[in-house]
Amino acid sequence: MSINLRGVGVALVTPFTDGGEVDYPALTSLIDHITAGGVDYMVVLGTTGEPATMTAEERHQVVRHCVAHNPRHLPIVVGIGGNNTAEVIRTMQTFDLSGVSAILSVTPYYNKPNQAGLYAHFSALLEAAPLPVILYNVPGRTGVNMTAETTLRLAHAFPGRAIAVKEASGILSQAAYILRDRPKGFFVLSGEDNLALAMVAMGGDGVISVSANVFPDTMCCMIHAALAGNTQQAAPLNLHLHEATDLLFAEGNPVGAKAALAIKGIIGNNLRLPLVPASEGLVAKLKYQIDRYGL
């Protein structure tokens, strides 16, 4: 199964009701919102979706809902990762992945493996995975950075299995080495919204975006213009989004995204502990940015 990851993927939030249940009508509204905004694919159960607070049954049901309600038949990527390699493999092989195009798998968190451990972990996953895998490097969340050398070793050793990296280290020079030496067909995607334009300018393929939950039309216009070589159109949009995107992460993710989506009337502003809703000050700043730039 092949998937084109060029463009904008949205790291979908999971809406909850006031009582803390998964809010499926709100999830439908969110999918309609991002679809109308022009996103190219959905990433479900990434860290932005709060899967760490969900039961296995809830995770399955959220994916099944996204597969069933997908008006533009967008490709769907599902997040399956963790710091127990054997358990990640078991989940990959038992999860209902019908209608899914690829798996996003994060570097192991907390136990902080070295580069040899990261390579061995992903090698085991790639050998066992029933779908192509997007490697996800996000040291700000996991405490460990997967170097360009390790990413490239995996990309070259597992062609067609390791199909992309979501590079969220924030280190553009690291991304540059991956872009320079990647094998043909290996996608390099920004995992940092405010570095996405710079990544595309270096030859990257797009972004897996949190802010595309809230501002899909602006993010898609920017990335699609940049991929077409139209920096004159893309650059002002990047500046319009810049502060709003910073605010989305000011009190943790997806705290800001859910606050902004609630401002826009798309979902309720409900999270699961240990996350709590955005402060009144952050909400006010988000409202100001949304009004100032028509976001």
Tell me the overall shape: globular
- Strand ordering within the main sheet: 1-2-3-4-5-6-7-8
CATH first level: which class? Alpha Beta
Low-confidence stretches: none
By CATH, the architecture is named Alpha-Beta Barrel
Q: Work out the oligomeric state of the chains in this entry.
A: single chain
Overall number of strands? 8
Number of continuous helical runs: 12
Mean pLDDT: 97
Percent in helix: 40-55%
The CATH superfamily is identified as: Aldolase class I
Beta fraction: 5-15%
Keywords:
295 residues, TIM Barrel, 8-stranded parallel β-barrel, 12 helices, globular
Write the layout of secondary structure elements.
Elements: E1 7-11, H1 24-36, E2 41-44, H2 56-68, E3 76-79, H3 85-94, E4 102-106, H4 115-128, E5 133-137, H5 139-142, H6 148-157, E6 162-167, H7 172-181, E7 187-190, H8 196-201, E8 206-209, H9 216-227, H10 231-248, H11 255-263, H12 280-293
Parallel strand pairs: 1-2, 1-8, 2-3, 3-4, 4-5, 5-6, 6-7, 7-8
Helix pairs in contact: 3-4, 4-6, 6-7, 9-10, 10-12, 11-12
